[in-house]
Design the sequence.
């Protein structure tokens, strides 16, 4: 059984409604317009809204031309492979169900004149070496957990305000070249083995009672 299929083929024409497709070489880009040479003639052309690649001198471009206007549709060839995507206004990259990935063989740079915002339920950064430089840094978190083999902190002044501080270490070494001042409500120290205090001058003052208790007490 043969089925007759009807076809409706419309041949494509380069010159419909007075428009024609041309190729040319970019000579200059003084502003938003583009100066293009087409068959020895130099014309001013606009850039189509969908042409995101900014043309540079020397590019071979595809144009749509009419008697009233001419637009660069795409960049066909370029000697240098450096590319700039130029957007006239706000831009949104959206993937409703998929993933947006940025990959570079060398590096990825992000810069903004005013502000960079990022928001996500979870953020993960993995690097061999990280560096952050900021005039002012503010960190707010409900819980902070840090794991490091070695940590070095170099600051001029530290101010810490907390309800409770707990430290646990095998060895603690502290060097204070100036004066160390403690203002404590009660001080309780428990030393399992030996307590040694050395000073050139010692002054211990108690307002009411002072008690020294031990099996042997040596004075002098």
Sequence:
């Amino acid at each position: 059984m043969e089925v007759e299929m009807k076809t409706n083929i419309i041949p494509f024409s380069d010159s419909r409604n007075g428009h024609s497709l041309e190729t040319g070489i970019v000579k200059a880009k003084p502003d938003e317009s583009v100066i293009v040479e087409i068959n020895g003639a130099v014309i001013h052309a606009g850039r189509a809204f969908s042409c995101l690649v900014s043309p540079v001198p020397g590019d071979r471009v595809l144009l749509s031309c009419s008697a009233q206007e001419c637009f660069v549709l795409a960049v066909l060839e370029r000697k240098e492979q450096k590319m700039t995507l130029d957007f006239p206004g706000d831009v949104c990259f959206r993937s409703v169900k998929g993933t947006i990935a940025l990959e570079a063989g060398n590096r990825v740079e992000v810069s903004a004149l005013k502000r960079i915002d990022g928001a996500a339920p979870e953020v993960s950064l993995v690097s061999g070496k990280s560096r952050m430089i900021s005039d002012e840094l503010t960190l707010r978190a409900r819980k902070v957990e840090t794991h490091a083999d070695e940590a070095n902190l170099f600051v001029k002044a530290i101010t810490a305000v907390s309800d409770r501080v707990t430290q646990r270490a095998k060895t603690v070494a502290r060097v204070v070249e100036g004066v160390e001042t403690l203002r404590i409500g009660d001080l309780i120290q428990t030393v399992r083995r030996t307590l040694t205090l050395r000073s050139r001058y010692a002054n211990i003052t108690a307002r009411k009672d002072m008690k020294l208790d031990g099996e042997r007490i040596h004075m002098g």
